[in-house]
Design brief:
This protein is of the alpha/beta class and 174 residues long. The chain is 33% helix and 20% strand. It contains six helices and eight strands. The strands form two sheets. Strands 2-1-3-4-8-7 form a six-stranded mixed sheet, sandwiched between helices. A two-stranded parallel ribbon has the order 5-6. Helix 5 links the parallel strand 5 and strand 6.
Length: 174
């Protein structure tokens, strides 16, 4: 865990930005926020807090967070996933983030991070049914689709629609 951007002990409250955008699967973000509340209750102190960040159209706020969680979006086909990934305002927001900003994504949300170029040269995982197109479209990413969670420097990627769970567990364990 030496490469982690998640501190082993918290000297202050860590703020985790929960990125909400049109068409995203918001249920995982609600669950993530509740898991942070439960961890705080168990620790007896507020160590982790969530902040909702809505990105739509030209509205792309830049609140200062210690890390950001980017959920997937509903897509029943590769064509739909490509359409959403090409048109979402989150892509511009991702491209404006400072290099090294901790970004944790899961399911089809990983496609957005890959499209922004932030996964180039890094290991990552994503939802299994997009393996072939993601390998083809983003050859600079070291894809590891057999893994549930990949942590490569400031980036964490997780597979599946419930990918928020291993990310939250990873954070809480730290």
């Amino acid at each position: 865990m030496a490469q982690m951007d998640i501190p082993r002990t918290f000297s202050a409250t860590q703020t985790i930005g929960l990125l909400h955008y049109p068409g995203c699967l918001v249920s995982g973000l609600f669950a993530f926020a509740e898991l942070l509340q439960a961890a705080n209750a168990r620790a007896g102190a507020r160590r982790l807090q969530s902040q909702w960040i809505h990105v739509s159209g030209s509205n792309a706020p830049d609140p200062a967070c210690d890390a950001y969680v980017l959920p997937g979006f509903w897509a029943e086909s590769q064509a739909r996933a490509d359409t959403v990934a090409e048109t979402t305002p989150v892509l511009k927001w991702l491209q404006r983030l400072a290099p090294g900003t901790p970004l944790w994504s899961y399911c089809t949300g990983v496609q957005l991070v890959a499209r922004s170029g932030r996964l180039d040269g890094r290991s990552a995982t994503s939802t299994w049914w997009l393996e072939a197109p993601l390998r083809r479209e983003f050859p600079a990413v070291r894809w590891q689709f057999r893994e549930t969670l990949i942590h490569d420097r400031s980036m964490i990627t997780a597979a599946g629609v419930n990918g928020h769970l291993p990310i939250a567990q990873h954070l809480i364990e730290a």
